[in-house]
Design goal:
Blueprint (H helix, E strand, L loop, with lengths): L2 H34 L2 E7 L1 E4 L4 E9 L2 E5 L4 E6 L6 E2 L4 E5 L1 H30 L5 H26 L2 E3 L4 E6 L6 E2 L4 E7 L4 E7 L1 H4 L7 E6 L6 E9 L10 E7 L14 E6 L7 E6 L5 E2 L3 E7 L5 E12 L2 E4 L8 E5 L10 E3 L2
Parallel strand pairs: 1-23
Antiparallel strand pairs: 1-22, 2-17, 3-12, 3-16, 4-11, 5-7, 5-10, 6-9, 7-8, 9-11, 12-15, 13-14, 13-16, 14-15, 17-21, 18-19, 19-20, 20-21
Helix pairs in contact: 2-3
Length: 355
């Protein structure tokens, strides 16, 4: 063989040798690359919660007993000793009318009563002398009874010409000013009783009210201080629907001592959550971010196997509660689901779990 013919063969052999040598050591590097490219995900363990969805409704804070104070008789307001926001003590005198007109009415009624007594006394004497008939004497007795009632009414009116606090509380509203003429029954002050407690009032639909019982636990939160919750308890539940709205009123008593540094005010807007009756059983709950696909009745997510591989699983949806999904059928205790990074996974893929 001549020298010029052997050159291509040597070049080919050399190229194959280099190719084989290059392929040989690359296998361990490929395996290492595969091991280090496993997707990093975050997981959460399936939690347990109530079997029924909590009832979430908007509510308004108020004192349980809020009383509008008014005079039984009309007149000119002589004095009001309190203003909005003032605290009051039991039996504290808050306002009164000018007594001149009231005293005149009392004097008139008293004078009428004295006259009726004298008339009856004289009538009894005349009857004993048979000067008047028994019917006329009965009329005099009736006149005395009427005069006694008028005197009693005048005396009571004088008492109701003053307003006093029945219990310790706070002035929520002042409707009138000194010197104003008010009619009988016209509101002058609105008082909130501290002794009655502070409540949140809300309205429930029939589907919600049927699952609520007096004594159930609840939590309240006010928009003015988001993130802060107050323990509460259902103390009142209407047994008939409001004719105008078709809803059922509910009141929960708020434990104001749970956050003693915060001052709750009547009229504050907030949210009320009541746990339905009969929810002693528990369901599996998974975070909403774990769902990769779903509809109203079913959802799909990835569970993590013991070898860190993922399995695409279909679950039935019971209801959505906040940022969690309640499942109709419980998952095994300790099941882990991918909460972050599930959107890019494939069934059976091995993942790396972030700490």
């Amino acid at each position: 063989m001549n020298r010029s013919a052997s050159l291509p063969l040597m070049s080919t052999a050399l190229g194959l040798g280099l190719l084989l040598s290059a392929c040989g050591p690359s296998k361990p590097d490929a395996e290492a690359a595969t091991a280090t490219t496993a997707r990093v995900v975050k997981v959460q363990t399936v939690s347990l919660g109530p079997s029924q969805a909590a009832i979430d409704v908007a509510g308004v804070g108020a004192f349980r007993d809020e009383t509008k104070l008014s005079f039984k008789v009309g007149g000119v307001i002589e004095q009001i000793t309190v203003r909005e926001g003032d605290s009051v003590k039991p039996n504290q005198k808050l306002a009164w009318l000018n007594q001149q007109e009231v005293n005149a009415a009392v004097s008139q009624a008293t004078a009428g009563l004295d006259k009726a007594r004298r008339d009856l006394q004289r009538g009894e004497q005349l009857r004993s002398e048979e000067v008047i008939s028994s019917v006329q004497l009965d009329n005099l007795k009736t006149a005395l009874q009427v005069a006694q009632a008028q005197a009693s009414q005048a005396s009571f009116s004088r008492q109701t010409a003053e307003l006093s606090a029945r219990a310790a509380g706070v002035v929520l509203k002042r409707f009138a000013q000194v010197g104003e003429v008010v009619a009988p029954g016209q509101p002058v002050l609105l008082l909130g009783s501290r002794a009655s407690g502070f409540v949140m009032k809300a309205s429930l639909s029939d589907r919600q009210a049927i699952h609520v019982r007096v004594g159930q636990t609840a939590t309240a939160q006010f928009d003015a201080v988001p993130g802060i919750q107050w323990p509460a308890k259902v103390i009142e539940l209407a047994q008939a629907a409001d004719p105008a709205t078709g809803t059922y009123g509910v009141q929960v008593l708020i434990d104001t001592q749970a956050n003693p540094t915060l001052n709750v005010l009547s009229g504050m807007q907030g949210q009320l959550r009541i746990q339905p009756a009969g929810s002693s059983e528990q369901r599996s709950y998974v975070p909403l971010e774990a769902v990769i696909e779903g509809d109203n009745k079913a959802a799909w997510l990835f569970t993590v196997e013991p070898n860190n591989s993922v399995k695409r699983r279909a679950v039935k949806v019971a209801f959505v509660q906040g940022n969690r999904l309640a499942l109709a059928e419980n998952l095994p205790e300790g099941t882990r689901v991918v909460s972050v990074g599930a959107a890019y996974l494939q069934d059976g893929e091995t993942v790396q779990i972030a700490e």
